[in-house]
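Record type: ASSEMBLY
Status: queued
Input:
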Amino acid sequence: MAEKLKIISLGGLNEIGKNLTVYEYGGDIVVVDCGMGFPDDDMYGIDVVIPDVSYLIKNQNKVRGIFITHGHEDHIGALPYVLRSLNAPIYATRMSAGLIRLKLEEHRLLDKTKIITCEAGDVIKAGKFTVEFIHVNHSIADAVAFAIKCPVGTCVHTGDFKIDATPIQGGMIDLARLGQLGNEGVLALLADSTNVERPGYTRSERSVGNSFDALFKGCEERIIVTTFASNVDRLQQIIDVAARYGRRVAVTGRSMENAMKVSTELGYMNIPDGVLMDLNQIKSLPKNRVCIITTGSQGETMSALSRMAFSTHRQVDILPGDRIIISASAIPGNEHSIGNVINELYRKGAEVLNERELALHVSGHACQEELKIIHALVKPKFFIPVHGEQRMLQTHAKLARSDSARQTGAVLGQFHDPADVADEDMIGVHPHLPGQLCVGLEHALLSVDRDEELGLDQGVDDLQLLLAGVARHVEGQLPLVENLRPLAV
Ligand SMILES: [Zn+2]
Ligand SMILES: [Zn+2]
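Status: finished
Output:
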């Protein structure tokens, strides 16, 4: 009997976060993404959750590589933890590789890890698999989908994506290649379900630029903008509009500084000479020449915006009249902390603008009409909705089935209820009950947004402890381990 292709989800099914999918055929495994348990984008929310990779550790000798779709935390965030127990090369596009390098450097793992930089169009041989990189649009530069081929057939794994006909850089998603694969025959499509409940199309990233322009034009006050640090195109648009209206830009918040560093070094951002300035210089300029870009769009306690609001930021005090633009949506669960920060900003006399009033944010995920286009192009034999909570997965399965022109088999991964596809016995979906490990809030802040004031560093020992699930107080540090607990599935 021919070998089966196994698709095993170790995370990302019935949840948004900790995406990790295993493709196994015979003696070979390729892993797609290795994320931690944040919903998406750049958030330092409540807890960090890591997928249980014991299956991979057990099959270590089969693992040919970890392929990364893009650099968001829910796709790369678990790498520093997983690489401690699993030795595998990482294949990623330049932007993703840059962010991964930064992360591994912080965790002192960079020397031990092999990172291979790829670009859209590349086809990597990984045992009996080949993995092709296909350009997609998302809310971070250099995102890709994968066409994963093995003797059983081709799987298209979209990663997070949207269809943006007018992206800031990188060009439009490679619909032609997806269509070509569809014509050649695709066994299974695994697609992003995040926005499946939203009708229509996701607006283009470019549309946010018009809103910025309207808010910068004629403004005589200081402008402070917060957004997701990883959204390089958004940062570019803020810098462009600031430069257009003669403002200089200062950046505050560790993750924002990191994102700017990686993206300018790699050429994803283009900052005109003389636009950037040090935060210490803002006081020497008139108000209408100042723009500050800051972290804190989710109201994170230790973020720069939050510290400005509560008067604990060393260099920036909020002044009456300051125009504060929140260019982000509230991730569910963060509304309260964002509300606290906004109230405090109001108390200080600032003007706060968010996406409720103006188009200041667009999603990075495909809505219904975009998903239909992908289904129609890829024409998979089987469809497996991923990257979503149960209701999103079911809605997405329904959307796939509703295309009466084709008979797509939709396969829903259920915990405790492995749903094997009976047809031809070729493909088995093995939803795994992931054991989860939780890391406390402070830990998350430390690893991704280490703060000057705290001056804390993440030691190797702590990480091993976290993986082992053993609680221990670390002397002289925040009580990381108090928050360490298994999360209910
Ligand atoms: Zn994601
Ligand atoms: Zn993403």
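Annotation: Residues 19, 40, 72, 74-75, 160, 387 surround zinc ion (ligand 1) (CB under 6 Å).
Annotation: Confidence is low (pLDDT under 50) at residues 39-47, 413-489.
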